[in-house]
Amino acid sequence: MTQLTSSLRNLKKQTEPKQILISGNLGVKLGGYEVIEVPGRSGFVYVRLLNNPSELVQVYNGVVSPIYDLPVLVKYNKDRYEIQGRDVLRYQNWGATPYLAIHGNQHSFDKANAGGGDVVWIHQEQFYPLAPAPSGTYESSGVYIAPYIYNWFGKWKSAGNLATSNVTVANPTDPSKAKFMLLTIDGESGTPHFITGSEFPVGITSATGSISYLPVYDPMKDIPLAGIRLVSGTSTIGWDEIYDVRQFYGREITGSAGGDSGVDNFLDLTDTPNSYVNKGEQYVKVKADVSGLEFVSGTSAGSGAPYNSSDFTGTLWVDLTDGGATTLHSHSGGSAHVIQNEGTPLTARAKLNFVGGGVNVTDDAGNDATIVTINTGSSSSGGIPTDGWIAGTGVWTNVTGSADDPTFVISVDNDQTDIINVGWRIKLTDTTVKYFIVTAVGAFSGGKTPITVYGGTDYNLVDVPLSSPYYSPVKAPFGFPLSVVKWTWKTIDVIDHAGSSPFSSTWTNFSTCSIPIGDWVISYECNVEVVSEDSMDEISVLVTFSDANNDELSSEYTCIGGMRVLLGDADHTLSIMQTVHREFNLNIVTKTQYYLNWMTPLSGLAGINSFSSLSSTVIQAKLSYL
Hints:
- With about 625 residues, the protein is mostly beta strands.
- It folds into six domains: about 1-105, CATH 2.40.50; about 125-245, no CATH class; about 255-330, no CATH class; about 340-375, no CATH class; about 380-480, Elongation Factor Tu (Ef-tu), domain 3 (Beta Barrel), CATH 2.40.30; about 490-625, Jelly Rolls, CATH 2.60.120.
- It is about 5% helix and about 40% strand.
- The protein is built from two helices and 40 strands.
- The strands form eleven sheets. It has a seven-stranded antiparallel β-sheet with strand order 24-30-27-28-29-26-25, with no helix packed on it. Strands 31, 32, 34, 37, 39 and 40 form a six-stranded antiparallel β-sheet that branches. It has a five-stranded mixed β-barrel with strand order 1-4-5-7-6.
- The longest helix has 14 residues, at about 1-15.
């Protein structure tokens, strides 16, 4: 029997036609379009045998993805062509894509179309919009937030596609404790931030056991994303630390969509404030009909007579009329203002009254604003007080450690970038009244504006609180000292200097200075002696002002002196002593060291000298804002 079976198998191999696999490519271009699937023949695709458009066949495909030009192997099976698989020998590197045949319906819960043979259930963490996930390739101390476009009270916003700051800085110090940091985004700005929760036993790790320790958030301001669980040793944030709390189901803040407010313990809403003492949070529902507006208020769920809120019948409904139990207040223009004094809210009142000759109040309907103009004292033209000084707003503080006499930095706790400008005058009091000139106004950041000021020869800030700040855009506000001498920075050198060789074509330094921030008129003056070697008929010297001790900053800042004499004999020397002077404008954005350098374009000089003990070398900078 075994010999007969073997003989039959051999006979089958000899008589059975051998299967031939033909290489081809998926798809064909018809009318300029790439077409893969055969219209009207489900499961069939076009294949160009040997990549020849003239050898086009319709082939049954249950094996590969319908991707145009995909290399495949085709076999003939009885009465049709079938795809055997990819022509894997065509390319050495196919990447990680398996090129499986279309089979999405078997993973879909689609009963109507016979789907759902192998359903894929989507877990909460797999839902991508605003998904919180570990940040970085190997995790980090922050959390990545996936991008999303959302609607916030009628405004389109975008958020995400970024990593948060380091959250592990909030780790509990007690090893037996854990806590949640609730990751939220600000609904208005899309900016992520954390809300700190209270500590709880470290052994509580399940979602059901932990949710009661999630911190409270304001649903009118924030969108919650995840609770980040921290312990004392947390260094990176992985999936075990992320508890996804995104809210996929909408809900109303109060009441319900069915018309029933769901509140009981209704009260008449009266104008007597003490009637609401210890009543807790109140809800109000209003109905408009032919008889006017009606309302009830309450604190908890309930319905039925005498406050049937589903059809607005019941004995506790009150007409909203000025003659009824409740007096109405009219606020034209919508919500009332929040009144503040230097940023601090005041107690809300029914009326706001501005008095005084220096106060003017106007309505700016175009910008939906009330404009209050206040002048401190009698005004001259342009709204500036007659003494020239305008009272500063906010808290002014001397920035400790910023002093670089005679320059100081003042911090103001509001935005001054559109109020105070470079060159304006400042008056304030620390121990006494002092005056300054503004030399720089920094960017408003972190709720503060840095203002750099120059105190001239007379005024320094000390580390005491600043008071009574004023500023002025005019040249001579009352009391401000106008002497040029007081606002001129100067250095005087009285030491003799002798140049060192080589002199020719090499800049060397002989005096130096340091000039603070500001826009300055710079000038320098010094005497220079030049001595020749024997037989020279010409001597010259150059002096320059530079920010380097061995170079020329600009020819605009350079002087030249010298002389030429034709004597006709070889045995003579030349010597000249000359005072050089130069003046120019220079804007300095940071305190800088500057140098007086000298150099001769000639070779063979015996020396270059400056006798500052006889005639001082002077470098001075006068503020151009005067």
